[in-house]
Specification:
The protein has 452 residues and is α/β, with parallel strands linked by helices. It contains 19 helices and 15 strands. The strands form four sheets. A seven-stranded mixed β-sheet has the order 1-4-5-15-10-11-14, with helices on both faces. A four-stranded parallel β-sheet has the order 8-7-6-9, with helices on both faces. The chain is globular, with a radius of gyration of 20 Å. The chain binds pyridoxal-5'-phosphate (PLP). Pyridoxal-5'-phosphate binds at residues 110, 112, 139-140, 229, 262-269, 337-338, 382, 384-385, 413-414.
């Protein structure tokens, strides 16, 4: 069976990012200062981010121009291909049409360079010399390391300790790009030392690593912090994905009934879905939009919509989001990029507005789906992306049961070449499901900050 691939010319690459804030019926709740609990202004964020990114964070302009220098770097791998998954459709014997947007063709192997390059560009423009960040499984760290190398910026990465030891090749990738990698919690920061004093064997979490990175970033004028998901400007940069997909589906003469993405902090999902949600909000088109999260880290399906910190030490501003509590330390599922306690405030807001359906899937179902996908389509998905694959397979099988033909579009956010241990473990029957019990949810949520 022939492969069907929809390519755009370089000249058809989007020249602006799409800002969903322009189409919202109601703005999301204000971001609060962690000390005063009052709404923050741009100046409060200045120690952390360059002003251009802060202005994007609070912008309600619909189209924000992509700087020419960023576009010229994007062109190395963008526009990314859109595939029709004909062989997977056949394997599932479904009347559904399945399309996937493949972001694994970037140098770092995922969607994350879309924002890493933009962030490095604006930091460079404003005279920053060093970027500090955290990384879980290493995808964000390697994307920022790549972008830092292009712009001559130093990059320091706090990597969650369990991944630092389990994923030596991701660390090697960051170091190859010239970044320095430190296992978190570390002795280098007050936040790290406090955790180690209380839990000497701590294997770390994204929340802890963020605390360390933020602490280091605010200490030096020439250093800023960079975040790979969750924030409005990060989601904004990812919207090249959905805009390209819209144009590619037009080439295919098709339009999705269902749009699906996996959600850790929400950025690849938002990147694909927001341009479609915009069309829905403007009353132009209608479709279902599904956000897929791990059952072991179920912020959207079991968390509370409340004000919370982005990190464990309580140093970041407070945002209203679906959260499991900033003290939450997730179980060791292999989709490291999805192990975050909170969700992007903009995604949370759209869930509250009824624009997004959240679903949770278990680890074993996601790997079974990934194997089936790899054997049909040839691409080995990242464990995170397998959540979107699993949900797509569920939808396609439902079409078969109901005898309806729907068009499904999902985001294949990255490849799994650095995650083969997880696949090996799955095939050897060593992986298991983790159910996150209601008692555990209640316990983690008990520590939420009180906001009047
Ligand atoms: C980081 C990552 C994710 C999760 O992050 P989001 O911000 O929710 O997109 C998903 N897939 C891949 C391949 C990743 O690297």
């Amino acid at each position: 069976m022939e492969t069907v691939k929809y390519l755009l010319d370089e000249t058809d690459m989007p020249t602006s990012w799409y800002n969903v804030a322009a189409d919202l019926p109601a703005p999301p709740p204000a971001v609060l200062h962690p000390g005063t609990m009052q709404p923050i202004g741009p100046a409060d964020l200045a120690p952390l981010f360059p002003m251009a990114l802060i202005l994007q964070e609070v912008s309600s302009e619909r189209a924000i121009e992509i700087p020419e220098e960023v576009q010229s770097i994007y062109r190395q791998w963008r526009p990314t291909p859109l595939y029709r998954a004909r062989r997977l459709e056949k394997a599932l014997d479904t009347p559904a049409k399945i399309y996937y947007k493949y972001e694994g063709v970037s140098p770092a192997g995922s969607h994350k360079p879309n924002t890493a390059v933009a962030q490095a560009y604006y930091n460079k423009q404003e005279g920053v010399k060093r970027l500090v960040t955290e990384t879980g499984a290493g995808q964000w760290g390697s994307s920022l390391a790549f972008a830092g190398a292009l712009f001559g910026l130093e990059v320091l990465v706090y990597m969650v300790k369990v991944s630092y030891h389990q994923k030596p090749y991701r660390r090697a990738l960051m170091e190859t790009y010239g970044a320095r990698v430190v296992a978190s919690p570390s002795e280098q920061t007050a936040a790290g030392r406090a955790i180690l004093a209380a839990h000497p064997d701590s294997t770390g979490s994204l929340g802890i690593a963020i605390s360390e990175a933020v602490e280091v970033a605010v200490q030096r004028e020439d250093t800023k912090y960079a975040l790979g998901s969750v924030l409005n400007h990060v989601l904004l940069h990812q919207t090249v994905i959905g805009q390209e997909a819209l144009a590619q589906l037009e080439l295919a003469g098709d339009y999705p009934d269902v749009v699906i993405g996996c959600t850790g902090g929400g950025s690849n999902f938002a990147g694909l879905a927001f341009p479609f949600i915009g069309a829905k909000l403007r009353g132009e088109r209608d479709m279902r939009v599904v956000a897929v999260e791990p059952a072991a880290c179920p912020s959207l399906t079991k968390g509370r919509y409340a004000y919370d910190f982005g990190d464990t030490a309580g140093m970041t501003p407070l945002t209203k989001m679906h959260t499991l509590g900033s003290s939450f330390v997730p179980s060791g599922i292999h989709a490291g990029g999805l192990r975050y306690h909170g969700m992007a405030p903009m995604v949370s807001h759209l869930v509250e507005l009824g624009q997004i359906e959240p679903v949770a899937v278990q680890q074993l179902e996601t790997f079974a789906a990934g194997l089936q996908f790899a054997r049909a389509e040839g691409i080995i998905p990242a464990p995170e992306s397998n959540h979107a694959v699993a949900s797509t397979i569920r939808e396609a099988l439902r079409c078969k049961e109901e005898g309806t033909s729907k068009t499904i579009l999902f985001n294949l956010s990255g490849h799994g070449h650095f995650d083969m241990t997880a696949y090996t473990d799955f095939m050897a029957g060593k992986l298991k499901d983790f159910e996150y019990s209601d008692e555990e949810v209640a316990m983690a949520l008990a520590g939420l900050p009180s906001v009047g």
